[in-house]
């Protein structure tokens, strides 16, 4: 391609793209805890204050890495520099041998976010907005999902038909999303990661077809989908069991020829996808590279070199 | 995943020339369940050359004898059993007074090319300070002990200061203070050379000291006292005396916080640490021993905590060989392997420009650069977003390409270096926008500033990462 | 052997001792998942009644996994002291329960008969005990072990400092380590769960631990909890190793799934004794947890309490310095909620002590379980009352690498103050010297300030 062609192309594309868009400042993601709890419309739910519209600040907005509560530390600057090296809750001070109120409440808040991520569902709106095809495993509710991992890996016949219909063109590569143990993780990351995967695949001439959303999904559900569709590679995005640092961590499990009885070691895993770990877009670009490698080597997991 | 890089360091100093080979162990520090994270996990020095006098040419000794240096390097490669093709990375540094020789620039560039495909040429007192400080281990000490350390590398012609706070480089400075600013015959002690700045001081102080005199401990003592006093002032132990400004090479350190620890490297450091007793103080034909001993008695050693340096006379060469190479982030894009590329000037977009009008700022910057330097390959550097959406990445990609239009028109490569972890998706997005018709290099994990130069080496670790050398004069604050 | 009883006029008949053992368990979601739990509350009690009349001899003769096919069974059975066994084999489980609880029998008496017990007997008696029985019984039994220091002495409560970091960043690890020390954590162990299970990484971290131990002259032991074979490789590479760690299961099949067998453990132990840095003689560290056998389909149809007891029988063979049950880590499909976690914690601790091993507990929970910080604070208080040797110590109880919650530095410090306990003697003296605790072991003004160690 000539440089002049490139120029024309870029200009055109860039112009189209820039219409009505500008780069969002990264400031909205500066405080790493901000959205993990804050974005769930908490503020709106709060009752109106009776004392002149005053409101207590959101404690989850505090950047824990920059908070030092030790009384008269010997070296404050050094302490903060040390704290910057780890997300662990250090420099929290104490009340007697117990915790200070602020840190105790923060742990409770972060735990609440984690529990809500597990025990709530991915919203229908989210599924609709992203045009995911909805299916559900054999679990009848969250409780059964949590206590019966076997049922979270299989689909009833009715659901199988939906899956079959969605992939009647038999794409080589299928991307699916499962709620797993964190609905928040899926809502925070899946919609950003998927276009990055598709873009990377498209560069190599591979398209993926519709995206499946699986309610009450365990990772093994991808094996059943492999059986049903005969796909060569399945990439499953699934919410990880939340920790207190973030309730929004997602994993991608990618396998070549996933079928019943696939050994766990044959899945390639990209975990820790969240705004404080590997970002969704970068993980997506990376995943596309892995998928290409799998198609070339016809292998995944420990067999993938 | 583990890989070893063979690195060379070559130091052309005021008085000595040295070479080392070291091994850089690059390892994936991430678990196999996450995206890889390749880092330099270990550095091991494999070979140290002899210490040679830096060969100079001509009556005035104003040119470096490149032929001789090349012979030295060639002989040392042979002795170490290393072929130039085996060298993966490394740096040549030209330091002290040698850096001021007429042909310094040519020599260092030629030597870089001679020493290996990706051996980077460096020069300048600031880089020298950083490199010698790291070679001495001052940065690691400051990090391990959560403290601030100044390392003073005292060579033949200059004293290079670098301040490290908890592992970060904070400031550098350089003074024209060194062991060979007065030279005397090792046998007769007759003075053969006094550096111009010292001449000036001797004159102003009316000291009875001139070329041709016989050097004694007593008659050089006042000059040494003035040098030591300037060093004390340089780290804030006392006010700057009347000769401080004169002795500063181009700038002193301006670091305002207290510096509790000090370490010494360079040839003179041997005498500071008094690792052995010298009967004849002029046995090296200079005042290095006396200068070192005076420093050992000074406020520098009495009021500050003196820490052992890991390397003394070899600090700079070790720094050049072991502490200049970095590794890019592990999820990056390059659509074609055209490496190494050397000495790319960095065009840095400020975070503000990045958010307000990236494409336009970049376009102007390139235009301006073209006027100044005539267009050559450049690396566009930016901070990037912490957790961008896919749409934001598209906008970044589009704006960057728009801004680099002039570069592309001249057939120059698209090289983007972003600090935050987004290079793979950003690179892929640019490549897609270009219709897969033009190659793209997009790296992350490297922090760059305006005025830096960057060298990018050949892909390593199954092509997953690129080694880079950043030549920076600006410090992270 | 009678496997049948009447309860409220209804006949309950069981087909095997294994079934009785399973159904006599307190309710656990893992037993339900395995399809072996009692169907009704009455059936559970019926099973307990049947179990109470079973003799120790019957339990010995009916291990839940056959001797011929399972090396864990063989190790447990072969380690039984036959003369002690012969003295007690006609006892029923009910009698054993009362014998243990009887004030006439001291901890030393219990330790003696312990040598005649198999893990099935240990599990059986635990099933007949209420929570307070488990505390009362365990409290009598003091098990000490010596690596560099002695754990388990009366008047002490110890803590494993667990300075985990999501990327093994050495500076991040050191940060948690230093702060933990100032709270008095780390007398049991400085022990990291690594992200990177490579010998190089393990060696690097062990060297760093060793440096810190030397620099501050800390009397304790260190370990990096990689796979046993990785740690052996690290020792060969010159890693300074005090303790060798491994997660273990109660069946050979379970251990195979973990990638080792008894010979591997013995080889590792010999290597630690021969080339390790510890004084010894106890140089092993094991972790267990109810449900792990089922999760690798290695439970042989047996319940999770019995399989857990078998872990301890296996562990005892290798004279460990530490064993702990990571009680709430496995998830709600095995232990559903706080109530089940606490019951399991008390059972495990009692069974470990009755087996004769130095028992600690990672009192913990994951975020998909119906439990919270109060759950494990309760458990840690109960276990301290029961004489537990040690707990975990993590900044604010939040493990940022394994993503679960356990006891924080503050918990051990509080428990020591509440119960009048201190750290292991030499470590306590170190804390005194450093000014972090007073004579009683209470925290001082300096405690909790990591920068005092810079």
UniProtKB/TrEMBL annotation, chain A:
Residues 22-36 have a biased composition (Low complexity). It comes from the Bacteria. Gene3D superfamilies: Ethanolamine ammonia-lyase light chain (EutC), Ethanolamine ammonia-lyase light chain (EutC), N-terminal domain. One of its GO terms (cellular component) is ethanolamine degradation polyhedral organelle. Keywords: Bacterial microcompartment, Cobalamin, Cobalt, Lyase. Residues 21-55 are annotated as: Disordered. Adenosylcob(III)alamin binds at residues 219, 240. GO terms for biological process: amino acid metabolic process; ethanolamine catabolic process. It holds the Pfam family EutC. Its main location: other. It catalyses: ethanolamine = acetaldehyde + NH4(+). Binds between the large and small subunits. Its cofactor is adenosylcob(III)alamin. GO terms for molecular function: cobalamin binding; ethanolamine ammonia-lyase activity. Belongs to the EutC family. The basic unit is a heterodimer which dimerizes to form tetramers. The heterotetramers trimerize; 6 large subunits form a core ring with 6 small subunits projecting outwards. This is Ethanolamine ammonia-lyase small subunit. The gene is eutC.
TrEMBL record, chain B:
Gene3D superfamilies: 3.30.420.40. It holds the Pfam family EutA. SUPFAM superfamilies: Actin-like ATPase domain. Signal peptide: none annotated. PANTHER family: CELL DIVISION PROTEIN FTSA-RELATED (PTHR32432), ETHANOLAMINE AMMONIA-LYASE REACTIVASE EUTA (PTHR32432:SF13). This is Ethanolamine utilization protein EutA.
TrEMBL record, chain C:
InterPro entries: Aldolase_TIM, EutB, EutB_dom_2_sf, EutB_N_sf. GO terms for molecular function: cobalamin binding; ethanolamine ammonia-lyase activity. The basic unit is a heterodimer which dimerizes to form tetramers. The heterotetramers trimerize; 6 large subunits form a core ring with 6 small subunits projecting outwards. Pathway: Amine and polyamine degradation; ethanolamine degradation. Substrate binds at residues 160-162, 193, 287, 362. It catalyses: ethanolamine = acetaldehyde + NH4(+). It comes from the Bacteria. Adenosylcob(III)alamin binds at residues 194, 246, 295, 401. Binds between the large and small subunits. Catalyzes the deamination of various vicinal amino-alcohols to oxo compounds. Allows this organism to utilize ethanolamine as the sole source of nitrogen and carbon in the presence of vitamin B12. This is Ethanolamine ammonia-lyase large subunit. Its EC number is 4.3.1.7. Belongs to the EutB family. Keywords: Bacterial microcompartment, Cobalamin, Cobalt, Lyase. Pfam families: EutB. One of its GO terms (biological process) is amino acid metabolic process. It is found in: Bacterial microcompartment. GO terms for cellular component: cytosol; ethanolamine ammonia-lyase complex; ethanolamine degradation polyhedral organelle. It comes from Lactonifactor longoviformis DSM 17459. Its cofactor is adenosylcob(III)alamin.
């Amino acid at each position: 391609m000539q440089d002049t062609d490139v120029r024309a192309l870029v200009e055109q594309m860039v112009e189209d793209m820039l219409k009505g868009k500008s780069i969002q400042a990264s400031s909205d993601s500066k405080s790493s805890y901000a959205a993990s709890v804050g974005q769930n419309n908490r503020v709106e739910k709060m009752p109106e204050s009776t004392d002149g519209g005053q409101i207590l600040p959101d404690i989850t907005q505090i950047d824990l890495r920059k908070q030092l509560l030790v009384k008269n530390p010997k070296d404050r600057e050094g302490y903060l520099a040390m704290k910057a090296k780890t997300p662990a809750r250090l420099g929290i001070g104490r009340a007697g041998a117990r915790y200070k109120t602020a840190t105790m409440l923060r742990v409770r808040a972060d735990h609440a976010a984690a529990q809500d991520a597990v025990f709530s569902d991915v919203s229908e709106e989210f599924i609709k907005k992203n045009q995911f095809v909805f299916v559900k495993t054999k679990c009848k509710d969250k409780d059964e999902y949590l206590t019966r991992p076997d049922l979270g890996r299989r689909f009833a016949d009715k659901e199988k038909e939906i899956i079959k219909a969605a992939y009647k063109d038999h794409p080589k590569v299928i991307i699916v999303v499962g709620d797993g143990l964190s609905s928040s993780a899926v809502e925070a990351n899946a919609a950003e990661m998927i276009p990055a995967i598709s873009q990377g695949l498209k560069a190599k001439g591979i398209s993926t077809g519709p995206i499946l959303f699986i309610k009450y999904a365990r990772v093994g559900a991808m094996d059943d989908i492999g059986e049903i569709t005969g796909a060569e590679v399945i990439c499953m995005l699934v919410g990880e069991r939340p920790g207190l640092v973030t309730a929004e961590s997602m994993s991608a499990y990618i396998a070549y020829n996933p079928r019943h009885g696939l050994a766990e070691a044959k899945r390639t895993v990209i975990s820790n996808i969240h705004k404080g770990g590997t970002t969704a877009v970068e993980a997506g670009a990376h995943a596309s590279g892995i998928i290409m490698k799998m198609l070339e080597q016809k292998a995944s997991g420990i067999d993938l070199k | 995943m583990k890989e070893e890089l063979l690195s060379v360091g070559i130091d052309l100093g005021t008085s000595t020339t040295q070479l080392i080979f070291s091994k850089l162990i690059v390892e994936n520090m991430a678990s196999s369940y996450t995206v890889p994270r390749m880092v330099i996990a270990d550095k091991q020095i494999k070979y140290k050359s002899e210490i040679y006098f830096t060969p100079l040419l001509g009556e005035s000794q104003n040119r470096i004898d490149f032929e001789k240096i090349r012979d030295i390097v060639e002989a040392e490669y042979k002795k170490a059993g290393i072929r130039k093709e085996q060298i993966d990375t490394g740096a040549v540094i030209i330091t002290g007074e040698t850096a001021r020789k007429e042909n310094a620039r040519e020599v260092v560039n030629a030597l870089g090319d001679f020493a290996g495909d990706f051996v980077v040429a460096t020069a300048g007192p600031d880089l020298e300070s950083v490199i010698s400080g790291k070679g001495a281990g001052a940065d690691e000490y400051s990090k391990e002990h959560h403290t601030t350390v100044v390392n003073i590398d005292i060579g033949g012609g200059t004293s290079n200061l670098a301040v490290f706070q908890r592992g970060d480089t904070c400031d550098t400075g350089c003074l024209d203070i060194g062991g060979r600013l007065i030279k005397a015959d090792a046998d007769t002690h007759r003075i053969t050379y006094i550096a111009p700045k010292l001449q000036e001081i001797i004159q102003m102080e009316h000291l009875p000291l001139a070329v041709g005199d016989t050097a004694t401990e007593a008659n050089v003592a006042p000059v040494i006292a003035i040098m030591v006093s300037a060093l004390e002032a340089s780290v804030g132990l006392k006010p700057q005396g009347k000769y401080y400004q004169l002795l500063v090479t181009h700038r002193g350190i301006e670091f305002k916080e207290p510096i509790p620890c000090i370490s010494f490297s360079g040839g003179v450091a041997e005498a500071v640490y008094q690792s052995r007793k010298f009967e004849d103080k002029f046995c090296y034909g200079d005042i290095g021993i006396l200068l070192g001993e005076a420093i050992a008695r000074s406020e520098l050693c009495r009021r500050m905590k003196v820490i052992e340096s890991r390397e003394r006379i070899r600090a700079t060469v070790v720094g050049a060989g072991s502490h200049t190479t970095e590794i890019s982030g592990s999820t990056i894009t390059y659509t074609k392997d055209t490496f190494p590329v050397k000495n790319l000037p960095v065009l840095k977009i400020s975070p503000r420009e990045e958010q307000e009008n990236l494409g336009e700022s970049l376009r102007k910057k390139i235009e301006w650069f073209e006027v100044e330097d005539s267009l050559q390959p450049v690396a566009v550097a930016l901070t990037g977003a912490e957790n961008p959406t896919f749409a934001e990445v598209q906008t970044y990609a589009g704006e960057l390409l728009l801004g680099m239009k002039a570069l592309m028109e001249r057939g120059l490569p698209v090289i983007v270096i972003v600090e935050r972890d987004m290079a793979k998706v950003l690179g892929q997005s640019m490549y897609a926008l270009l219709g897969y018709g033009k190659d793209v290099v997009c790296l992350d994990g490297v922090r760059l500033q305006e005025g830096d130069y960057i060298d990018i080496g050949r892909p390593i670790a199954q092509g997953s990462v690129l080694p880079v050398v950043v030549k920076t004069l600006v410090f992270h604050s | 052997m009678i496997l049948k009883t009447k309860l409220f006029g209804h006949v309950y008949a069981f087909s095997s001792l294994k079934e009785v053992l399973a159904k006599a368990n307190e309710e656990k979601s893992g037993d339900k998942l395995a399809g072996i739990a009692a169907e009704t509350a009455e059936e559970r009690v019926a099973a307990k009644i049947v179990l109470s009349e079973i003799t120790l001899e019957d339990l010995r003769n009916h291990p839940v996994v056959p001797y011929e096919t399972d090396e864990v069974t063989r190790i447990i059975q072969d380690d039984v002291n036959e003369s002690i066994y012969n003295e007690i084999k006609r006892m029923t489980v009910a009698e054993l329960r009362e014998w243990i609880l009887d004030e006439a029998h001291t901890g030393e008496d219990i330790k003696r008969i312990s040598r005649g017990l198999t893990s099935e007997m240990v599990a059986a008696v635990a099933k007949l005990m209420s929570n307070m029985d488990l505390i009362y019984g365990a409290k009598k039994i003091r098990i000490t072990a010596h690596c560099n220091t002695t754990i388990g002495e009366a008047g002490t409560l110890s803590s494993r400092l667990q300075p985990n970091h999501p990327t093994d960043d050495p500076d991040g690890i050191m940060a948690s380590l230093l702060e933990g020390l100032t709270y008095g954590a780390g007398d049991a162990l400085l022990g990291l769960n690594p992200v990177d299970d490579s010998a190089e990484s393990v060696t690097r971290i062990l060297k760093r631990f060793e440096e810190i131990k030397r620099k501050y002259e800390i009397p304790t032991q260190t370990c990096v909890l990689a796979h046993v074979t990785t740690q052996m490789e690290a020792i060969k590479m010159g890693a300074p190793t005090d303790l060798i760690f491994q997660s273990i299961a109660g069946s050979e099949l379970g251990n195979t799934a973990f990638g080792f067998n008894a010979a591997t453990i013995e080889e590792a132990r010999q290597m630690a004794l021969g080339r390790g840095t510890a004084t010894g003689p106890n140089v092993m560290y094991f972790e267990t947890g109810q449900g792990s056998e089922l999760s690798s389909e290695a439970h042989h149809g047996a319940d999770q309490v019995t399989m857990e007891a078998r872990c301890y029988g296996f562990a005892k063979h290798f004279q460990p310095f530490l064993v702990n049950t990571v009680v709430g880590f496995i998830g709600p499909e095995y232990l559903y909620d706080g109530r089940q976690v606490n019951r399991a914690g008390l059972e495990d601790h009692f069974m470990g002590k009755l087996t004769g091993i130095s028992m600690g507990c990672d009192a913990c929970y994951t975020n998909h379980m119906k439990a919270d910080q109060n759950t494990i604070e309760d458990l840690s208080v109960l276990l301290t009352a029961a004489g537990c040797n040690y707990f975990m110590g993590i900044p604010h109880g939040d493990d940022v690498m394994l993503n679960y919650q356990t006891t924080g530095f503050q918990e051990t410090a509080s428990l020591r103050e509440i119960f009048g306990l201190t750290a292991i003697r030499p470590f306590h003296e170190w804390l005194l010297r450093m000014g972090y605790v007073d004579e009683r072991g209470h925290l001082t003004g300096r405690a909790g300030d990591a920068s005092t160690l810079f």
